[in-house]
Amino acid sequence: MTVxxxxxxxxxxxAAALGNAMEWFDFGVYSYIAVxxxxxxxxxxxxxxxxxxxxxxxxxxxxVRPIGGMVFGPLxxxxxRQKVLALTMxxxxxxxFCIGLIPxxxxxxxxxxxxxxxxxxxxGFSTGGEYGGASTFIAEYAPDKKRGFLGSWLEFGTLAGYVxxxxxxxxxxxxxxxxxxxxxxxRIPFLIAGPMGIIGLYLRMRxxxxxxxxQLEKEARAKEKERREAEKRVGVREMIFGQWRxxxxxxxxxxxxxxxxxxxxxxxPSYLTSELKYDETHGLLVVLAxxxxxxxxxxxxxxxxxxxxxxxxMAAGCAGFLLLSVPALxxxxxxxxxxxxxxxxxxxxLLVCFTSTMPSTLPALFPTKVxxxxxxxxxxxxxxxxxxxxxxxxxxxIGATGNRMMPAYYMMAAAxxxxxxxxxxxxxxxxxxxxxxxxxxxxxxxxxxxRTVRREATATA
Length: 461
Description:
Elements: E1 2-3, H1 6-32, H2 34-41, H3 47-63, H4 65-79, H5 81-99, H6 105-108, H7 111-127, H8 130-141, H9 147-175, H10 178-185, H11 187-191, H12 193-205, H13 211-221, H14 225-232, H15 236-241, H16 244-275, H17 280-308, H18 310-334, H19 337-355, H20 358-361, H21 371-387, H22 390-401, H23 406-424, E2 439-440, H24 443-460
Parallel strand pairs: 1-2
Helix pairs in contact: 1-5, 1-8, 1-9, 1-12, 2-3, 3-7, 3-21, 3-22, 4-5, 4-7, 4-21, 5-7, 5-8, 5-12, 8-9, 8-21, 9-17, 13-14, 16-17, 16-19, 16-21, 16-23, 17-18, 17-19, 18-19, 18-23
């Protein structure tokens, strides 16, 4: 039984969440300033073509995320979670900082979008090891009874990063003229990534390895060399095919999580501007307000998942998106500030059902020796195929059909698939992680758990 130190748990959760916030500030800024980037890097007389090109570069980063997961995931299971999380932080910050240095299309021609694509690929590759590592790190530190609550702070960090990105873009849009924004203002958010990356790296370098991974290393050292190598050098083949049923379950859960996430937080600002001709600043302010509300609700929803279970909370989210996506989008399309706020707010609260539970649910699908690797691979395959392509696919569907309700239909389809995955998954709330002993906060709780186990064993005998 593992008795975790509260101060260490707090530091681990804070560093993982703050690091995640910095990573997703970098990644999210691209979405919020997509319309401007389309004009800088993809000159065209057609605004839809510009937006499609910009989101095409956005989606390209997701194509390499599974590769990043296949590299960083097994590495995290072999050398430790903390080292790999520090490495992903460095790469993400460097890729984002470089975007801020790229000359415009008007300066160097086709070289500009090519350099943008290269920087995006570096971002995507590094992000392939981020979510799986950060969620694994928190899950392996957290006591069993508080894993949902503590895991919810990871997505709190993500939302904080999005809020920071949206707030900065909104401020620049309000203060700068269109010409200034196009000539130099768009570079500011990307250049900020440099010092932010240094802060994030410092936080992560101060962390110690998780108890679950440390225990795995201790057990491996106590066994013969062959057994140790088998434990520590689990190949990608075993991470995928040895866990294929769980991997499919992970893909389904991540699908509904990320389609709805990227639809609301990444695509909707551009949808309001390009499709509904809504004022760009007001659209960003609405999304910003929705994210602030989500941040406030996030920890409470995490506690609910500890008390009532992960499955009921996620099932409520799937049912909500299935039933309310069309009414919410109709409200948004109505056009008034109040209607847009109500529609976006409803979708945001439904999204919290996933953001608050996924960081604790997904690591509990896999055993310790393959957790980082299998989770990173499954997560990023799903994000690459369905999540990151959401803005591109929905924009293309609207362009092909002329039907501006496509975002709602897309979220409903994702909710059906997610609902099936939730139905098939096992409940993990308040239970030990697979391959790990029970984790508690105090010695007294450890003794109580031991007494309970002995009573159950006696009753069974």
